[in-house]
Amino acid sequence: MTKPKSLLDGIGSISITKKYYDDWSEKYDQTLDQWKYQAPKKSSFLLKQEIKIKPDYILDLACGTGLFGIELKKIYQKSKIYGSDISYKSIQIAKQKKIYDNLEKYNFENKHIYQIKFDLVSMIGSMTYCKNFDKLFENVKFYLKKKGIFIFSHRLDLWLNQDFDKILQKFSKDFKILNISRPYNYLPLNKDFKNKIKIRIVLLQKC
Ligand SMILES: C[S@@+](CC[C@H](N)C(=O)[O-])C[C@H]1O[C@@H](n2cnc3c(N)ncnc32)[C@H](O)[C@@H]1O
Fold first, then answer.
1. Is residue 4 in some structural domain?
2. Rounded distance, CA 123 to CA 61, Å?
3. Is residue 139 part of a domain?
4. CB under 8 Å to 16, separation ≥6 — which residues?
5. Which pLDDT belongs to residue 22?
6. Between the N and C ends of the chain, which has fewer C-beta atoms within 10 Å?
7. Is 83 within the bounds of a domain?
8. Domain that holds residue 135
9. pLDDT per position in the chain (207 positions), as tens?
């Protein structure tokens, strides 16, 4: 079996990533707390500051064990929150938190599975794993209501390597850029990331 690459290098194929997160799921929250993972809190702060609508339906893609779901629930107590991830074991941990109204095992690059339309789609800490931006953005476009919001974080080192500004430009007829945050530390107490690897948080609105 192929060995997983490091977290810094993006782990590997879908099946390797899935196993990596399955194996990590029970310790994931504890480890991320030790590494001072702030993306969920920073993202919900940005939402609170910039978005005035209260969403009826939220879809948290690559929700993992639900760390962003917890933050969503704090600001949107009445919203119905759907979550999905490729890691079944992470989903089982998310389920115990009782914040999601629906949880599915789902690869965000696969054909869409939800029939309802969402006011807000999130994907925090997971853009690293996107191998096909066309498929992801097509799915998000399908899932969102008109004027719905897509919030995601993305690593700045990958952003530059991928020329991500051009990628956003490519989708600009479907998504208007509302906000791109300043760079934040990602996992400051992880020895590979420290304050070397930063993220930006992006808010898009479906046209
Ligand atoms: C760093 S974790 C982030 C989880 C959560 N959003 C958070 O902020 O804690 C990355 C997650 O992406 C999931 N993932 C990776 N590739 C995926 C894909 N193609 N479809 C769905 N989930 C994926 C992993 O299983 C993992 O749970």
1. no
2. 5
3. yes
4. 2, 4
5. 97
6. N
7. yes
8. 14-206
9. 566 788 888 888 999 999 999 999 999 999 999 999 999 999 999 999 999 999 999 999 999 999 999 999 999 999 999 999 999 999 999 999 999 999 999 999 999 999 999 999 999 999 999 999 999 999 999 999 999 999 999 999 999 999 999 999 999 999 999 999 999 999 999 999 999 999 999 999 999
Q: Which residues pair with 176 in a beta bridge?
A: 205
* Token duo for residue 153: 């974080």
Would you state the structure tokens that stand for residue 181, as one six-digit string?
């945050």
The tokens describing 128, both together, are 């690293």
Q: Is 87 in the pocket of ligand 1 (CB under 6 A)?
A: yes
How remote is the CA of residue 60 from the centroid of ligand 1, in Å?
10
Nearest to 179 by CA among 79, 70, 61, 45: 45
Q: Is the CB of 124 under 6 A from ligand 1?
A: yes
Domain count, the chain: 1
Ligand 1 pocket, residue 62 CB under 6 Å: yes
* 26 found inside a domain: yes
Distance of CA 189 from the midpoint of ligand 1 (Å): 20
DSSP lists the bridge partners of residue 85 as 105
40 Cα nearest atom in ligand 1:
8
